[in-house]
Structure formats: C-alpha cells, structure tokens
Amino acid sequence: MNKIYLNILYGLLLGESFIINNKKEIKLIIKIEGKHISYMTDIHKKISELGYCEAKYPGIISKLGKKGKLNKLMLIHTYNTNNYLELYNKWYVDKFCKNIPNDLFCYFNDESLAYWLMTEGKISNSKLYVNMKQFNEKDIKFMIQFLENKFRLDKINLINYYLEFNCNNIKKIYDITKPYILPSMKFKFIT
C-alpha cells in the first residue's frame, strides 16, 4: 500500500470505516454517512484513482437518522487483499474492537487529520466535535495528547466520549488541513 493511501486510511479508520477479516476475505469497508453526496463521491474517486477499489460508484442509500433526519450512506468496498491483514493486526484487539495503533506517529499526518475530521467531525456552537466512543479511555487520552503535540493545538476537551475542539483549534486545524479539505466540507472549519 502506498503512503498516501495509508495516510488517508489512518484518518478513516479512526471513524466508522472498518476492516473485515474472515475466512473468505480481508478488505476495508469505508463507511461514509451524512448529507453531502459530493463528499462521498470525492472519497470514492480518490480511493479508486489510487487503485484500491472499483471505479464504479457504490450505491448510496438513504438512512433515517436521529430526530428523523434523513442521511445518505455509502459503503466503499476495497479489493480483497492480504495487504489489509497487517493493518487489521495493528488496529483491532479482536474482530469488533478497535484500538489506536502504536504506529500512528508514522502514518497520521495533515491529510489523515483532514479525512478524519471531514468524515467524523460535527460542528455545534462554534466548536468541532468528534465521536470517540469506539475507543477505550486509554486510547482516547493518547489521541488527545498526540493531537495536541503533533498539531500544536490548545487543550482538547473530552465530553461524553466526544473530543471537543474550540474555535482557536478549528482555525489552526483548517490552516493545517486546507490543501486536503474538499469544497463540500469547508463549512466544518469556518466558524
């Protein structure tokens, strides 16, 4: 796997994307949910151009979300390959529980941050929130310290398993990730 792809994957795997590892196959499924179809198709195009999934767009389905909101859902299936086994062994404690891998320092960069926040970030009251419920407390504390140090961010708060980035951090993050932010996602960083 090339480095650009790994950078993107490390951002996506911090979210709801996951690796299937069973007797028949081992592949990555990139899960993107939201209202912005253009973002979904842009991610698919990027992964396809890198050669890791079919060029044909997967179907986009509608899903009823919280409070009756209608969301779109796209599942991008990558090609079945043993190359994902190494990633699986780094990211998973067992078939269902993820952990943050020790080599995050090697592969999580500005582009990873952009893809993670474009996919998982939610803006509310001039703050950016990212759900971390799928990780344990130790991993979350590690991630906070990692983000604060690597990207020189102000204190990141943890509220009910959500990382909370204040408006100063949002401006810093946007400056760092601007080259990778897709047009349909700029609203998440401009408060």
From TrEMBL:
**Residue ranges of the Homing endonuclease LAGLIDADG domain?**
7-154
| SUPFAM superfamilies, alphabetized | Homing endonucleases
Question: What molecular functions are annotated in GO for this chain?
Answer: endonuclease activity
Task: Supply the alphabetized keyword list.
Answer: Endonuclease, Hydrolase, Mitochondrion, Nuclease
Q: What does this protein do?
A: Mitochondrial DNA endonuclease involved in intron homing.
State the name under which the record lists this protein. LAGLIDADG type 2 homing endonuclease
Organism placement in taxonomy: Eukaryota, Fungi, Dikarya, Basidiomycota, Agaricomycotina
